[in-house]
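ARCHIVE CARD
Drawer: 12
Card no.: 0347
Subject: one protein chain, sequence and derived structure
Cross-reference: see card 0346
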Amino acid sequence: MGNIIIQSVVNSFGASVIAGFAAATKLNNVLISSLTTLGSGISNYASQNLGAGKNKRVKAGFGAGVRLLGSICLCFTALYLLAGRQLLMLFMNSPTGEAINTGLTFLQTIAPFYLLLAFKLTSDGLMRGCGMMGRFMATTLSDLFLRVVLAMLFSRWLGVNGIWLSWPVGWFAGTLLSVVFYRTSIYRQAEEKTTL
């Protein structure tokens, strides 16, 4: 539902913006799909170690997960910042200058913040693996809700670039909440059980 609302805000800026956004979103989704898959692996890792009573490994999994996802995020950030124009051309049938510039601006706005996702998706994966679905849903919905609301507000003041700015702000809020939940629940629980 949130993505439909954001798409309707984007649609109000015309065909070239729609084309640029569609191509850039496909590139963004390549990274997001990879990170989500690895986040599911982290969930399995956490649940297996929790079930085996190896709580110390759950704590260690956070650092390993952030390093793994973070290295992937940094690679994609560099790729999209350095070769974004060429990659966008792969997803456009008849690219116009405005469409390419729109897609490029979107990528240049959000790519520097990909590293936030390494922290968020690692924390989210650990929460899911430890059965803390309420907290996981809270972080995910806060990120999405904020992005939708800010896309509508920022687009009024900053035009189409305001929509792109809603991504990093939503990611930052969701990441902050996710890491706080990790530190106050999973991390503390794992530390208490390993010191007993």
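Annotation on reverse: The chain is about 90% helix and 0% strand. Helices lie at 2-11, 15-51, 55-89, 97-110, 114-129, 133-158, 160-195.
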